[in-house]
Amino acid sequence: MPKFLHTADWQMGRTYSRFDAEDGAALVEARYQAIERLAALATEHQCDAVLVAGDVFDAQTVSDRTIRRVFNATRGFAGPWVMLPGNHDAALAESVWTRAKRLGAVPANVHLALEPGVTELPEQKIAVLAAPLTQRHTYGDLTQPFNEIGTRPGLLRIGLAHGSVQGVLPDDIDATNPIAPDRTETANLDYLALGDWHGVRETNPRTWYSGTPEPERFRNNDAGYVLIVDIEEPGAKPEVTRYETARYQWHQWRETLSVPSDLDELLNRISQLPEASVLDLKLDGTLTLAGDQKLSEALSVAEARYRSVTCDRTGIQLEPTEEDIAALHADGYLGEVVQELRESQHTAADPEEARDALAILASLLTHKEPEVAK
C-alpha cells in the first residue's frame, strides 16, 4: 500500500516584523522545527515519499543560510521528497531553486519539480504529475496537461499543484493560478495534492489542501497540520489522515465589554490558553477604573506566560464608578480632573488621549504612597 505525506506552504524565510525581535525569532524557528517534525512523522509512519505542494520559500530573495537550513531540516526522512515551486518561489529562469542547486544544498533524495511533467518513483509505485508555477501568477490552469500525460501501469497517478480550485475557495481568494475542480476525474488521478490555501481543506475525496504545517497568521482555517495519504492501489479511494505539527496556536479575539462579567469571562479564557499561544486582542466597550486595572494586571501576567500578547484598547471607554473615585481619594481639584477626563472621552477631538490620561492618573493615585502623619 503506497503511502505518502502531503505538505505545502512552508514559506521559509518569512519574517514577523509586527512582533518584537524575540518573539519574531521564535516564530521563525518554529517553521524549521515543523519541517523536522513532518520528516519524523514520515519516518515514523513509514511513508514512501513526501510531496511539497509549493511555496517552500517565502520569496526568491531569501538568504543562502535559509536555503541550507531548509534542506538540512529534511534529513529526518531518508526517502524521496518532491518539491514544487509555488507563487512565492516560482521556477523563474533565475530563482531560489537555481541558487539552491548552485550552492549544492539540495540532497540527492530531493527531487525539484521545476518543469511540468512526471517525476517517477518506481520503487515507491508513485508517479508525480507536477504543475510548477514558472511565474508568480497565471490565468490558465496548469493542471490541464495532466489529462494527456501518460504514466506506467501499476503506478499511482498523484497530481502536485499550487493554486485555487475554482468555485471552492472563498470569494476573496485570488482568481489567479486556477485549478479545475474535476481535475482528478478528467486526468484519472488517484490524488491531487494542493498548496496555496493555508489550512487543511478537502475539495473532494481525491483532492486536498494540506495547509501550512506551522500557522503564521490569525485565520481560523485549520492550519498547522500535514496529511498522510494511503492508497492501496491505482483507482482505490485514498485514506487521508491529518497530523498536527504546529508549535504555536494563533488566536485573534474581538471582544465587547459591557458589564463586569464580560471582563471576568475574557480573563478566564486568556488564563486557559496553552503556553505556546500567540494572542491578538481588540477590545471595545466600557470599563470601570477597577476593571481597567484588573485587565492591565492580567495582560502583564499573560505577556510573561505566552509567546506573544498584543491588545488594542483604543475602543475602550473608562467609566469610573463612585466606588472608583472614592477609592482614589480624588477629592477637590483631583476629583474635578477625573470628572473632566471622564467627560472628555465623549467630547474631545482625541478621546483616546483623554482615556489614556484617565488610566494613568488612576494608576498613579492607586499606587501613591500613603502620607505619614506628623
Secondary structure: elements and pairs:
Blueprint: E1 3-7, H1 21-44, E2 49-52, H2 64-73, E3 81-83, H3 96-103, E4 110-112, E5 117-121, E6 126-131, E7 156-162, E8 164-165, E9 178-179, H4 183-186, E10 191-195, E11 201-204, E12 207-209, E13 225-230, E14 239-244, E15 249-257, H5 260-271, E16 277-287, H6 289-305, E17 308-318, H7 322-328, H8 332-347, H9 351-366
Parallel strand pairs: 1-2, 2-3, 3-4, 6-7, 7-10, 8-9, 10-12, 15-16, 16-17
Antiparallel strand pairs: 1-13, 5-6, 11-12, 13-14
In words, what does this structure look like?
This protein has 374 residues and is an alpha/beta fold. The chain has nine helices and 17 strands. The protein has helices at 21-44, 64-73, 96-103, 183-186, 260-271, 289-305, 322-328, 332-347, 351-366; strands spanning 3-7, 49-52, 81-83, 110-112, 117-121, 126-131, 156-162, 164-165, 178-179, 191-195, 201-204, 207-209, 225-230, 239-244, 249-257, 277-287, 308-318. Strands 4-3-2-1-13-14 form a six-stranded mixed beta sheet, covered by helices on one side. It has a six-stranded mixed beta sheet with strand order 5-6-7-10-12-11, with no helix packed on it. A hairpin with a 4-residue loop joins strand 5 and strand 6 (126-131). Helix 5 (260-271) runs parallel beside helix 6 (289-305) and helix 8 (332-347) runs antiparallel to helix 9 (351-366). The longest helix is centred in the first third of the chain and has 24 residues, at 21-44. It is elongated. The N and C termini lie far apart (89 Å). The relative contact order is 0.10.
